Amino acid sequence: MTTINALAADSQVIEHGDPLADGRAFRRCLGQYPTGVSIVTARHGEKTVGMAVNSFAAVSLDPALVLWSIRCESGSAAAFLEASHFAISVLSSRQVEVSQLFGSGHEDRFKLTSWTAGIGGAPLIDGAIAHLECRLAKVYEGGDHWILIGQVERYTRSTGEPLVFAQGQYAVSQNHPQLAAAARAAGTYEPTRENPLFTSLLTSTSQHMSRLFQEHRQALGVTPATSRVLNFLSQGAASIDSLEHDTLLGRGAIEDALSELIKQGFVEVNAGEYSLTAAGLEKRLALTQRAVEFTAEQLDGISDADLAAATRVMGKLLSN
Ligand SMILES: Cc1cc2nc3c(=O)[nH]c(=O)nc-3n(C[C@H](O)[C@H](O)[C@H](O)COP(=O)(O)O)c2cc1C
Hints:
By secondary structure, the protein is an alpha+beta fold. It is built from ten helices and 14 strands. The protein has two domains: 30-172, Electron Transport, Fmn-binding Protein, Chain A (Pnp Oxidase, Chain A, Roll); 198-299, Winged helix-like DNA-binding domain superfamily/Winged helix DNA-binding domain (Arc Repressor Mutant, subunit A, Orthogonal Bundle). The chain is 38% helix and 25% strand.
């Protein structure tokens, strides 16, 4: 009988042993368990403390309790143990730098980030996807760490994706592909406006971008059809048949575009082969320059990680 754990055979032991014999190896083992990343802060007297932690965890719903642990040797430990409150800011996937700053012990960490003071003066980091303002309820000894339990007095949940920390690296979370695959296999996957078919999304994105780029083309005196022909001819001379095949424009549209481009002096024809003139090459360069600027504007605010993932997906689809 096949078990639901049938793929377990693919997993191989990398290292094992006594956790005290090799601390780094033990940490790598703990790192197999992914967590989010939070900034925990407190204000005690004149001292404001804050650090990146991945030990934050939920404990109880009623009463509302959470925990996190701090290295006993941390310079901030005394202030955290004495302050009446601490605040947890759960970082978004766009806040890797904030985590690095608060994980580095940087002196100016609170000057280099924007925040607002919460209960007990504990800073709430702007842009976090959740804030939990807690009264310090209990402290337990936990080996070389103190375990702090907080009673949540107020919370805020905001939009955004969590920052993930797994296997010693920052990561992003996404729905498991098996969910969509299972829905497709079961025939229960129904495209909706919010959750469209991926290929439809690609088509509408391409059409939308093309519409937005239209004003830039117009400014350069180029139409969608002439722009496409300029693009193809920039790879070398071509016959009208191959242009029709490669550009997916109809014969009529190709003929119109070519006669327009010849009239403008951008294209010349020799023995049935169409090619760009020097002016045509220049026009195509100007178009490319505009496209580069337009693309940078459109991609503004999209993280490098998201862009890399999208590029991988497009590359895979193009190679199918
Ligand atoms: C992702 C991440 C998670 C961390 N988790 C913890 C933690 O749970 N507890 C802890 O004491 N330090 C943790 N650290 C290390 C502290 O953030 C770091 O030592 C910080 O500089 C401590 O501040 P301090 O200089 O005021 O002691 C973590 C660091 C990173 C980058």
